[in-house]
Amino acid sequence: MAVSNKAADGYAAGEAMCPYRLVLEHVTSRWGVLVLIELLERPYRFSELRRAIGRIGRGVSEKMLTQTLQTLERDGLVHRDAKPVIPPRVDYSLTDLGREAAEQVRSLALWTNERMADVERARVAYDEARALRARAS
């Protein structure tokens, strides 16, 4: 992926200013969450991982999955094992750090699933109160 020097410099500056936020964004991104949770189960080849994520929700493009895996690998969360065979075989797995992060993300995903009814009730109450205020003004 070609990135202009200005864009790369801006990203590097943002990373230097708030590295915690960037790692949190990587781990909790739309595809990062799904990759981490899937890799908790076992190592996957690229195409297997792509299919597994597609079964959970909308499919991920090859480009987005590649970018997500590279980002998580750079952060030390994912290990890429390229085997020198024909045809080429690349397996992805979690590092110890990645397993720790994935377990945290999975806990949050489980909590979200368990508490969704409460969230929906809160949303309805909020929307109703807001509509009442709008009519009153």
Walk me through this protein's architecture.
By secondary structure, the protein is mostly helical. The protein contains six helices and three strands. Strands 1-3-2 form a three-stranded antiparallel beta sheet. Helix 1 (about 5-15) packs across helix 2 (about 20-30). The longest helix is centred in the last third of the chain and has 41 residues, at about 95-135.
Kindly report the average pLDDT value: 89
The succession of helices and strands, N to C, reads HHHEHHEEH
For the biggest sheet, the summary is:
3 strands, antiparallel
Number of strands: 3
How many alpha or pi helices?
6
Span of the ends, CA to CA: 51 Å
Instruction: Name the strands of the widest sheet in spatial order.
Output: 1-3-2
Radius of gyration: 19 Å
Global outline = elongated
Global structural class:
mainly alpha
Oligomer: single chain
What's the gist of this structure?
The chain has helices spanning 5-17, 19-28, 30-41, 46-56, 62-74, 96-136; strands at residues 44-45, 78-83, 89-94.
What's the arrangement of secondary structure elements?
Blueprint: H1 5-17, H2 19-28, H3 30-41, E1 44-45, H4 46-56, H5 62-74, E2 78-83, E3 89-94, H6 96-136
Antiparallel strand pairs: 1-3, 2-3
Which structural traits does this protein have?
137 residues, 3 strands
